[in-house]
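note to self — DONT lose this again. spent like an hour looking for the file last time. sequence + predicted structure for the chain T wanted, 102 res
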Amino acid sequence: MARGRVDGRRVVDLSSTIDSATSDRSARRSVFISNIPVGATEDDLRGFFEGFGTVEDLKIRADNRERRLFATIVFQYPQDARRALMHRTEFRGRILTLAFAR
Protein backbone atom coordinates (compact mmCIF):
# COMPACT_ATOMS: atom_id res chain seq x y z
CA MET A 1 0.00 0.00 0.00
CA ALA A 2 1.65 3.23 -1.16
CA ARG A 3 1.07 6.53 0.55
CA GLY A 4 1.65 10.05 -0.73
CA ARG A 5 0.26 13.56 -1.00
CA VAL A 6 -1.72 15.15 -3.82
CA ASP A 7 -2.69 18.84 -3.56
CA GLY A 8 -1.85 18.80 0.12
CA ARG A 9 -4.15 15.86 0.86
CA ARG A 10 -2.95 12.50 1.99
CA VAL A 11 -3.53 9.78 -0.65
CA VAL A 12 -3.38 6.02 -0.16
CA ASP A 13 -2.98 3.69 -3.15
CA LEU A 14 -5.21 0.68 -2.52
CA SER A 15 -4.55 -1.11 -5.81
CA SER A 16 -2.47 -3.86 -4.15
CA THR A 17 -5.21 -4.35 -1.54
CA ILE A 18 -7.83 -4.62 -4.28
CA ASP A 19 -5.69 -7.11 -6.20
CA SER A 20 -5.28 -9.33 -3.14
CA ALA A 21 -9.01 -9.12 -2.37
CA THR A 22 -9.78 -10.17 -5.93
CA SER A 23 -7.43 -13.16 -5.73
CA ASP A 24 -8.94 -14.10 -2.33
CA ARG A 25 -12.39 -14.04 -3.90
CA SER A 26 -11.37 -16.31 -6.76
CA ALA A 27 -9.58 -18.66 -4.35
CA ARG A 28 -12.81 -19.00 -2.37
CA ARG A 29 -14.44 -20.49 -5.48
CA SER A 30 -11.98 -23.41 -5.45
CA VAL A 31 -12.70 -26.50 -3.37
CA PHE A 32 -10.33 -29.39 -2.60
CA ILE A 33 -12.04 -32.80 -2.47
CA SER A 34 -10.61 -35.98 -0.97
CA ASN A 35 -11.88 -39.48 -0.19
CA ILE A 36 -13.13 -39.88 -3.76
CA PRO A 37 -13.96 -43.50 -4.66
CA VAL A 38 -11.50 -45.19 -7.01
CA GLY A 39 -12.96 -45.36 -10.49
CA ALA A 40 -14.75 -42.01 -10.32
CA THR A 41 -14.22 -39.81 -13.38
CA GLU A 42 -14.16 -36.05 -13.88
CA ASP A 43 -17.52 -36.31 -15.65
CA ASP A 44 -19.01 -38.19 -12.68
CA LEU A 45 -17.86 -35.54 -10.20
CA ARG A 46 -18.81 -32.64 -12.48
CA GLY A 47 -22.34 -34.02 -12.84
CA PHE A 48 -22.61 -34.51 -9.09
CA PHE A 49 -21.35 -31.04 -8.12
CA GLU A 50 -23.41 -29.23 -10.79
CA GLY A 51 -26.23 -29.64 -8.23
CA PHE A 52 -24.49 -26.97 -6.11
CA GLY A 53 -23.77 -24.54 -8.96
CA THR A 54 -21.96 -24.06 -12.24
CA VAL A 55 -18.61 -25.87 -12.33
CA GLU A 56 -15.98 -23.94 -14.29
CA ASP A 57 -13.12 -26.40 -13.89
CA LEU A 58 -12.45 -29.78 -12.28
CA LYS A 59 -9.23 -31.78 -12.12
CA ILE A 60 -8.74 -35.24 -10.57
CA ARG A 61 -5.32 -36.34 -9.32
CA ALA A 62 -4.36 -39.82 -8.16
CA ASP A 63 -1.99 -41.08 -5.49
CA ASN A 64 -1.34 -44.47 -7.07
CA ARG A 65 0.66 -45.81 -4.13
CA GLU A 66 -2.27 -45.29 -1.78
CA ARG A 67 -4.97 -45.84 -4.44
CA ARG A 68 -6.58 -42.52 -3.50
CA LEU A 69 -8.16 -39.84 -5.65
CA PHE A 70 -8.18 -36.10 -4.98
CA ALA A 71 -9.80 -33.31 -6.96
CA THR A 72 -9.91 -29.55 -7.18
CA ILE A 73 -13.13 -28.00 -8.40
CA VAL A 74 -13.71 -24.34 -9.29
CA PHE A 75 -17.25 -23.03 -9.08
CA GLN A 76 -18.48 -19.99 -10.98
CA TYR A 77 -19.55 -18.20 -7.77
CA PRO A 78 -18.15 -18.28 -4.21
CA GLN A 79 -21.62 -18.96 -2.77
CA ASP A 80 -21.78 -22.20 -4.80
CA ALA A 81 -18.50 -23.34 -3.25
CA ARG A 82 -19.79 -22.46 0.23
CA ARG A 83 -23.02 -24.36 -0.43
CA ALA A 84 -21.05 -27.48 -1.41
CA LEU A 85 -18.90 -27.18 1.73
CA MET A 86 -21.90 -26.86 4.05
CA HIS A 87 -23.44 -30.20 3.02
CA ARG A 88 -22.43 -33.66 4.16
CA THR A 89 -21.55 -34.93 0.73
CA GLU A 90 -21.94 -38.63 0.00
CA PHE A 91 -20.80 -39.85 -3.40
CA ARG A 92 -21.00 -43.52 -4.40
CA GLY A 93 -21.28 -44.62 -0.78
CA ARG A 94 -18.34 -42.55 0.51
CA ILE A 95 -18.41 -39.33 2.48
CA LEU A 96 -16.31 -36.80 0.57
CA THR A 97 -14.03 -34.46 2.49
CA LEU A 98 -14.27 -30.89 1.20
CA ALA A 99 -12.28 -27.76 2.09
CA PHE A 100 -11.48 -24.46 0.42
CA ALA A 101 -8.44 -24.98 -1.79
CA ARG A 102 -5.26 -23.10 -0.90
